[in-house]
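Question: I have long wanted to understand how a fold can be written as tokens. Here is the record:
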Amino acid sequence: MEIIFEGGKVVTAYSHGHVIKTDQPVHSGGQNSAPSPYELFLASIGTCAGIYVKSFCDNRNISTENIKIIQSAEFDEETGLPTNIKLDIKLPADFPEKYKEAVISVAELCKVKKTMADPPVFEVITSIM
């Protein structure tokens, strides 16, 4: 992954043929032209769980048309870091009862969540191009 600076507060990542732009909100000096890196981080949690739920349903021929995940978080007032992240999987009334607990179990398999639960070591270095 390569990260470049494009002016203002825009920071862009290039990863496997994808362009992922980030910006900061106006009150933080950005133009709000893209999600902030932290918004993308939080979104990665819900979308990761969503992939697992989608795959589970697809494998059982269950429509995901009326399923959605509502993600919310509580934050520490001093640090601004999340203290609780909640994923509420909204299921339609006709969702098979026998799979309701399984949907929770598969959402718990999210690789982003697992990475947060057992964080890697971060190494930040500098080098000359």
Q: What stands out?
A: The mean pLDDT is 97. The CA atoms of residues 45 and 113 lie 6 Å apart. The helical segments are 37-59, 100-107, 111-117.
